[in-house]
Amino acid sequence: MARFRRKSCIALIALVLLILIITLALKALTPDDSLLNSPGVMVFMEKKNDNQIQRQIDSKPDQTKMNDLPKSNNDAQLEATLKRFPPPNYYLHAFYYTWYGNPKFDGQYIHWNHKQLPHWDSKVAQGYPQGSHNPPEDIGSNFYPSLGAYSSRDPSIIEAHMQQLRTAAIGVIAVSWYPPNMKDENGHPTDDIVPLLLEVAHKYHIKVVFHIEPYTGRDEVNMFSNVKTLIEKYGDHPAFFRYQTNNGKLLPLFYVYDSYLMNSEQWAKLLKHTESNSIRDTPYDAIFIALLVEEKHKRDILTAGFDGVYTYFATNGFSYGSTQRNWGSIKAFCEDNNLIFIPSVGPGYIDTSVRPWNFQNTRNRINGKYYETSLSAALEARPDFISVTSFNEWHEGTQIEMAIPKTGQTVYLDYLPNKPTIYLEITRKWAAVFGGERRKWQK
């Protein structure tokens, strides 16, 4: 009887083991990820993981790196896109204009319909056409943009511009700026475009500085107020450019267009440390770069308390500052007086679509040779930065933005026989040369 019970017990144990083995075998035949292959469950699992990671970040912010976060498809695509671009050169700046508009985004064409400006001599003016251009076929430019008569408010246009800038290895854009509710003679206010511009620029690791225009009533008092406004509104954004000075301060940089319109005594009240209402040593201190036009402006700029000079104009020989053979002596003056020197280079110049009488200042692009000569001259002067006039000043034909051949009621110039990207490619090449030369100069 005891032997029978032992046999029964052994049989029962064997049966249990057999059932367990069969269960395990069946489980092994079922894919572990079968449920995760369902899109709905996958989305839920991803959200759950994101929430868990976010809680970890909130509780231990110093121990969790952003690189540990799962990347979205958009992030991955952007990262792949950025890898195709050369690294941005933050010593290479390009003047950038946000004053263009079209009916889709602005209710009307803005700046593309630029007036044909009359000559100051009424007798000469009678010999040239007057009136406004009629977009989109007839625009205020001698070239036609590959993106068409675009709006500067169009997010897709800003995205395309940032990609072109990164193709050219340009690290900083100098945005033409008027105070809120103020504008140039032919446009509309554009300060409200800046937040979007900063966001898209940051995506592409591009920095932004401001090119302060000669707005109506500009003086030392409202300049202080406007610089304060810019820094308070945009200074905390990661795309806002700051530069470390020789004394270790990390400061914003501002280009001041037509700075000579204010006398040096007025500027000194803003820019000299000795003045009681100076911006120096306040939270709004910055690097202020004056426009050098005439040779006599050198001393005025020094007396005013500016931190450096730039030359802006793309026409070699148009002014003392834009004449390339003068850049060596201007650099020597800047070195002697602890000033930053920023020569401005351009691919050519033609503005006869808006100033039909101004043929004397036209500079032919010569299939890129004019631009390369300008860049070479800038490097010979060993500048602190180089500025490009311009990325997209279409009225004056200084753009390096992509242009296309176009035929119709208006005859446009083009970049043929080269590609629409030719001036981006030239910029990219010289950005690398400039980077290499800078490293040699610092040794």
TrEMBL record:
Identify the GO cellular component terms for this protein. Golgi membrane
| One MF annotation (Gene Ontology) recorded for this entry | glycoprotein endo-alpha-1,2-mannosidase activity
The membrane-topology field of this record reads:
Single-pass type II membrane protein
Catalyzed reactions per annotation: N-{alpha-Glc-(1->3)-alpha-Man-(1->2)-alpha-Man-(1->2)-alpha-Man-(1->3)-[alpha-Man-(1->2)-alpha-Man-(1->3)-[alpha-Man-(1->2)-alpha-Man-(1->6)]-alpha-Man-(1->6)]-beta-Man-(1->4)-beta-GlcNAc-(1->4)-beta-GlcNAc}-L-asparaginyl-[protein] + H2O = alpha-D-glucosyl-(1->3)-D-mannopyranose + N(4)-{alpha-D-Man-(1->2)-alpha-D-Man-(1->3)-[alpha-D-Man-(1->2)-alpha-D-Man-(1->3)-[alpha-D-Man-(1->2)-alpha-D-Man-(1->6)]-alpha-D-Man-(1->6)]-beta-D-Man-(1->4)-beta-D-GlaNAc-(1->4)-beta-D-GlcNAc}-L-asparaginyl-[protein] (N-glucan mannose isomer 8A1,2,3B1,2)
Q: What is its EC number?
A: 3.2.1.130
Renumbered to this chain, the signal peptide range is 1-25
Q: Which domain of life is it from?
A: Eukaryota
Stored Pfam families = Glyco_hydro_99
Q: Which UniProt keywords apply?
A: Golgi apparatus, Hydrolase, Membrane, Signal, Signal-anchor, Transmembrane, Transmembrane helix
| Residue numbers spanned by region Disordered | 52-72
Localisation per UniProt entry: Golgi apparatus membrane
Give the InterPro entries listed for this entry: Glyco_Hydrolase_99
The entry sums up its family as follows: Belongs to the glycosyl hydrolase 99 family.
**Record protein name field:** Glycoprotein endo-alpha-1,2-mannosidase
The species this protein belongs to is Anabas testudineus
By which gene is this protein encoded? MANEA
